[in-house]
Amino acid sequence: MIESKVIHEITPLMGKDVLYIAERRKKEFTYPIHNHKSFELNFVEHAPGVRRIVGDSNEVIGDYDLVLITSPELEHVWEQNVCTSESIHEITVHFEFDFSEDSLFSRNPFNSVRQMMNEARKGLCFPLDAIMKVYHMLNSLCTIEDGFYSFTQFLTILYELSKCDGARTLATSSYAKVEVASDSRRVLKVKNYINEHYRDEIRLADVANLAGMSPSAFSRFFKLHTSRNLSDYIIDMRLGFASRMLVDSTHSIAEIGYSCGFNNLSNFNRIFRKRKGCSPSEFRENYHKTRIIV
Predict the structure, then answer these.
(1) What whole-number distance in Å separates Cα of residue 156 and Cα of residue 244?
(2) DSSP string spanning 126-143?
(3) DSSP 33
(4) How far from 205 is each of 14, 29, 38, 210, 217, CA to CA, in Å?
(5) What 8-state DSSP symbol labels residue 284?
């Protein structure tokens, strides 16, 4: 195993603090890739061209970006990349809420927030209409002097975001080490099977039989519940595990490809580049280039 080069950030939240809110107006992003125990909601505007990395997700953002991260192990960074803006505006909120069964947040009014927080273990990116809905509340958050009112406003922001449509997860489940879950027992059964057998050849007929359905009926059913066809889901699962191995191990590219279910190196390289925008070796190099040892 290679030595970890991700900064584990110690956030300024103290024992009895609820929120840490930081607003920055700057010309560039310089902070290295990191993770931290506290949850984070990060808003960025006027920074088109910045590269956002969350786990194995690597995207260039536009004029507005809002991401929620609730996993202490999921590394993330906003890199300058090709951004030339001189009026970057960033608001970062760190918070630690107890979502255990005995907490206030386990009650019915917080159902949608609780579900959103669970999704955000893989990083959750919000669409523009959701950002605009909470834009003014985010901007005024730093100006509220009373801690109670800033807390209730932040809760309102979370609630509004939890009710929006179109939010999407960023890192893959396999990379983020998040257990799969589903409202459908059949889908959950299939996902668990794929998670255990992703290294092997997985046939449509076999998983359809596992779900007690015909192949054609299962294909429609799986696409309805996951928004992906079976082959794409399997590829994404394999790529998630492969990306994690590229970061966490010194195995060769070929070894990683074969161990994650790809039948040859050229196929692994081709699919990885198509989905990730870079080759496996470039992913490994770029990932480590952004890290420093502490």
Answers:
(1) 35
(2) --HHHHHHHHHHHHHHTT
(3) P
(4) 54, 49, 43, 9, 11
(5) H
The DSSP bridge pattern shows strands 64-69 and 124-125 to be antiparallel
Give alpha helix (H) positions in the chain. 111-119, 128-141, 147-162, 173-176, 185-197, 204-210, 215-226, 230-248, 253-259, 265-276, 280-289
Digit-by-digit pLDDT tens for the chain (294 residues) are 333 456 777 777 777 788 999 999 999 998 888 898 899 999 999 999 999 999 999 999 999 999 999 999 899 999 999 999 999 999 999 998 888 888 888 889 999 999 999 999 999 999 999 999 999 999 999 899 898 999 999 999 999 999 999 999 999 888 887 766 554 678 888 888 998 999 999 999 999 999 888 999 899 888 887 778 999 999 989 998 998 898 888 899 999 999 999 989 999 999 999 988 889 998 888 766 544 332
pTM over 0.85: no
Amino acid at residue number 154? F
In 211-249, which positions are buried (b, 16+ CB within 10 angstroms) versus exposed (e)?
Answer: bebeeeebbebbeebbeeebeebbbbbbbbbbbbbbbee
d(CA 186, CA 212): 9
Residues in the chain: 294
Nearest to 222 by CA among 202, 241, 239, 242: 202
Contact 232, 222 (CB under 8 A): no
CA distance 95 to 72: 12
